[in-house]
Amino acid sequence: MAQDIHINAEFVKGATKPEHFPVSTLPEIAMIGRSNVGKSSLINMLVRHSRMARVSNTPGKTQEINFFVTDLEFMLVDLPGYGYARVSKTQREQFSSLIRQYVLHRPQLAVTCVLIDARHDPQPLDLAMLEELELGGRRFVVLLTKCDKLKPGALVEREAQVRTLVQSCNNLVDVLCTSSETGLGRHQLLGLMKRIVTIAAAEKV
Ligand code: GTP
Ligand code: MG
Fold first, then answer.
1. Whole-model pTM above 0.90?
2. Which of 6, 47, 104, 157 could bridge 136 with an S-S bond, Cβ 3.0-4.6 Å?
3. Mutate to test the pocket of ligand 1, among 180, 184, 186, 189 (most ligand atoms within 8 A of CB)
4. Ligand 2 centre and the CA of 35: distance in Å?
5. Residues 46-58 as b or e (16 or more Cβ within 10 Å = b)
6. Which atom of ligand 1 is nearest to the CA of 57?
């Protein structure tokens, strides 16, 4: 069995506007996706801490950009979910401009993990986010979430569907299957994050 990767993390700050983003030179790895897709749960699964990032059954729980510093020389960033219908239209637009500002323009951002619920077809907002990242020339990984909820055959089909969808993207790094319940994909994802951070550091020199 591959050796376990340890990672510790600590909350740095929450930001509701770009002026509040932390001043730091560490590369950042962000989690983005529809509300309730499992962004905060995935961060908790990676760091093996059940309450590092706030998880809830109520969509729209994470309403600010939360930064966590890790002992692997990068920051993990938990973004507010998109597509949550119950917040006001203005609030929704505010989130989306904050998210867009962050994922398209944050210099420290090394890679964005786009989380997609493995139980459903990718939704129009997921496709729009993938397109923004691709056109914006920003590196991304697709993470299928809640894979524990699917039968093996259905998961293989979903992964193949999503791989086909993004196969022509220049900025795609990989597509991984994950579950915050079972830890599926943890080792692979942490390994990939470590490699990307090394690449990002080399690019900076
Ligand atoms: P927002 O902050 O509202 O955008 O949501 P989020 O994307 O951070 O989702 P969150 O991690 O809060 O999880 C939402 C719900 O999905 C919670 O009830 C979690 O317990 C559940 N959940 C998250 N990941 C998994 C998973 O891998 N498997 C299963 N079965 N449930 C999950
Ligand atoms: Mg959240």
1. yes
2. 104
3. 180
4. 7
5. bbeeeebbebeee
6. 18
pLDDT tens digit sequence for 173-187? 999 999 999 999 999
**Cβ contact 117:159 at 8 Å:** no
Pair of tokens at residue 160: 């193949």
Q: Which ligand is the nearest neighbour of the Cα of 185?
A: 1
CA of 36 to the centre of ligand 1 (A): 5
> Which is the closest atom of ligand 1 to the Cα of 44?
11
Work out the burial of residue 28: count CB atoms within 10 Å of its CB; fewer than 13 is exposed, 13-18 middle, 19 or more buried. Answer: buried
Cα separation of 77 and 154, whole Å? 30
